[in-house]
Amino acid sequence: MRILMAAALAAVTALPSLPVRASEMGDDGLYKAPWMRDTFKDLREDLAEANAEGKRLVLFVEQRGCIYCHKMHEEVFSLPDVSEYIGENYFVVQINLHGDTEVIDFDGESLSEKAATQKWRVLFTPNIIFLPEEVPENQSAIEAAVAVMPGAFAKGTTLDMFTWVAEKRYTLDNGEDFQRYHARRIRERNDGTFD
User: Fold this and answer.
1) Which of 86, 90, 103, 120 could potentially form a cystine with 41 if both were Cys, beta carbons 3.0 to 4.6 Å apart?
2) pTM
3) What InterPro entries does this protein's entry cite (predicted)?
4) Which CATH superfamily hosts domain 19-153?
5) What is the average pLDDT across 14-26?
6) Taking a C-beta distance cutoff of 8 angstroms, is the pair 85, 118 a contact?
């Protein structure tokens, strides 16, 4: 009995971190993560609210039936360290690639979600658009973006991208392009110097 209990305890402690509550499916067929915000999709207002909370604004463009969105929500965004990092550092607004909800872009143009995503040249989902803390009035979201993450990626790449943006590595002062940053983080994880 003692051997079985010791084996069970060893098995439990050897498990990787278990996912947090998985995203739920909304009426629109899109996954709804606990850290996503339900806003009026006036991006200037969303940016102001994100800044007031000390967070970065990020747009998640997704679509119903997207197998890659499913993969990200079930296998990556549900991991505790990824979910916590996004929730603590980002103000996330979801945009439906084929949606009809009105979006007011930073340049003041009011259009449907599907027209906005066409304007932003989004072809694939998921497509994650990271915004700066200040956007000039004449720029659209895609023109102002500091980074875009098109497609589904594993935990390490995803967390590294969110961290790279949060640390403002894209600026000249902190200049470390994402590829070098990501390669360094992979080495650190492999060396055991970084979780």
Assistant:
1) 103
2) 0.86
3) SoxW (IPR041737), Thioredoxin-like_fold (IPR012336), Thioredoxin-like_sf (IPR036249)
4) Glutaredoxin (3.40.30.10)
5) 59
6) no
